Amino acid sequence: MKLDYLIAAEFASSDSGGKATLVGVFDHLYVKELPAVLSSLSVATRLALESGDIRAEPHKFELVMEHPTGEKLTQIKNEFLAPKPVGQKSGSLDFGSVQLVINLRDPMFPVSGSYVIRLDVDGRTIGTTTIHVGSTANQPKPLSDQSKPTQ
């Protein structure tokens, strides 16, 4: 099993036909005050399957969001099936893919820093993504807000 993508967004969904919808994709988040709580955070992933991944029993996955210190803030455990692709030809090396969307309610970011989101499948880390959180007080001012040169 290989990771195609692991993306943080304001909203994500996946339909039964395999189409993913992602709205508000981000990896940097600037907030007015810390700690900050988002109303929602979606994590979307697609996993490319290999021959050994197609099996009758489910795969177990764990999604973990870590505080900048490494402490676990959020931990979600679940499972999924990896069905044989429909219409797969004998000898084909395309074993299909599985899309997962995990919606987190009210995730909290207590301090500025880099929050790592890690996806493990069957006890093995498949991939990570990072959300960098900062205060708007630390954000550079746009050029239009800076002092204009005198003439």
Describe it:
With 151 residues, this protein is an all-beta fold. The chain is built from no helices and eleven strands. The chain has a five-stranded mixed sheet, with no helix packed on it. A hairpin with a 5-residue loop joins strand 1 (2-14) and strand 2 (20-25). The radius of gyration is 19 Å and the shape is elongated. The N and C termini lie far apart (63 Å). The mean pLDDT is 88.
For this entry, give a set of tags.
elongated; mainly beta; four-stranded antiparallel β-sheet; 151 residues; five-stranded mixed β-sheet
Low-pLDDT residue spans: none
Strand order of the largest sheet: 3-11-10-6-7
- Structural class call reads mainly beta
Radius of gyration of CA atoms, rounded to a whole number: 19 Å
- Categorize the overall geometry: elongated
What series of H and E elements makes up the topology?
EEEEEEEEEEE
Q: Which SSEs are present, and which pair or pack?
A:
Blueprint: E1 2-14, E2 20-25, E3 28-31, E4 36-37, E5 40-48, E6 59-66, E7 72-80, E8 97-105, E9 108-109, E10 113-121, E11 124-135
Parallel strand pairs: 3-11
Antiparallel strand pairs: 1-2, 1-5, 4-9, 5-8, 6-7, 6-10, 10-11
Q: What's the short story on this structure?
A:
The protein has 151 residues and is mainly β. It contains no helices and eleven strands.
